[in-house]
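Please go through this chain and its backbone structure tokens and walk me through the local backbone shapes. Keep your notes short.
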Amino acid sequence: MKPIYRLLTFCWLLAVVACSDRDVQPVEETNLVLRHKGANMPIWVRGNAQSNKIILFVHGGPGDCAMCYRYYLKGLETETMVAYWDQRVAGSSTGKVPEQTLRYAQFGEDMVYVVKLLKQQYPNAQIYLLAHSFGVELAWQFLTTDNYQQMVAGVIAINGMYSYFNWLFNVREWALREAGRQNNAEAEQYLLAYPVTPENTATIDWLGIYRWMYKLGGNPVSLYSDKKFVLDYAFASPNTALAQFTHGKAYSYYGDVESRLFEKGPLLKQVRVPVGLFWGGKDGVVPVEVGRATRQVLTNAPVTTVDFSESWHEPFVTETDKFNRAVLAFVR
């Protein structure tokens, strides 16, 4: 046998051994669609099909996307399946969606059907919610309604609120501290003129407070400064920037009315499934004080807290490896 044929035969044998059944991890690639009340909501399931664990990513926004963040969350797929769900009027979802359905109750109902659809497809799998920002509000809505929490094995809440008043109060406090630290007299004057109380949350100029928080460095990280993310978003994601950034106007009622009424504090004592509170310590959008307050009202749930001291609002962006390790440790 000629040397070249010996080499090829040897390489082929190595490949066969490397690809033996005991070493292969079946990869799940299923595309589902939930059609409900005018919305066609895609759900992409990716990852380790043998794990019998599904992490349902509940994206933020409102009006953001799920699959575009796979760039950061793909590391979870080695040990679990990850379900990337685009909410109604978000990401690549389609349909003629009545604006009056953009309410917490409807998003919570949507999540019930998403979980049921996943359970139908994977009857032996445990499902964990991985909720970020606005998605945390939806997770609390789901977990505090009827007995829906029995449908999931746990939830990880990443930099999200449970109470509009608690959130805006802490955003203003964060901005005030930063204004003093940065000697920004204009910001300090404005923020002192707008104290946040339980009585004025329905009318206060929240956007003015929010803008000062951003100007003072509340979340300086931009996803689009990462060229690899941009390329992945453009060429390896079913979402499009055009779809994502045309949704904002649909949420005027959410920003003006619905979110201002959001208060789940008294109800979080009903939550009994394991909860992970993952927080970017530098965040001004949803300051770490909100996470600490959330811990206090979760009186009957086993709670794990993970601090990401080098992160702002999206710790999976700035501390990706640490974040994915913490998620996998939680679901194990």
